[in-house]
Amino acid sequence: MAVRRAERHGDLKFLWELLRAMPVAEAAEGHAEEAGMDITKVSSLIDDTLSAGASDVSEALRPLYIDYLTRHSR
Fold first, then answer.
1. Coil, helix or strand for 10?
2. Alpha-carbon span 26 to 73, nearest angstrom
3. Which of 21, 42, 45, 69 has fewest C-beta within 10 Å?
4. Tens digits of residue pLDDT in 21-49
């Protein structure tokens, strides 16, 4: 939900936060190899970020999603 809202509203600040958090979230979920690849390939990082809600990495990013949705639910 958070990524879809950010995309609809052009919220580049939140999407940038997710981009920065993605390698750490992937490493936390046991995807160390993919996390290393993301650091060197921006296109892979962007794709992973926009589809993170459909993967196990979403659990590591949950605090960011909840904070974002809470701040924008008003």
1. coil
2. 27
3. 42
4. 877 787 888 877 665 555 556 666 666 66
Question: What CA–CA distance (Å, rounded) separates 40 from 53?
Answer: 22
DSSP 37: H
| Residue position matching structure tokens 């920065």 | 20
Which domain covers residue 20, as residue numbers? 2-71
User: In angstroms, what is the C-alpha Rg of the chain?
Assistant: 12
Alpha-carbon distance 45 to 32, whole Å?
13
Total domain count for the chain?
Answer: 1
- State the Cα–Cα distance between residues 32 and 50, nearest whole angstrom: 19
Asked if 18 and 63 touch (Cβ cutoff 8 Å), the reply is no
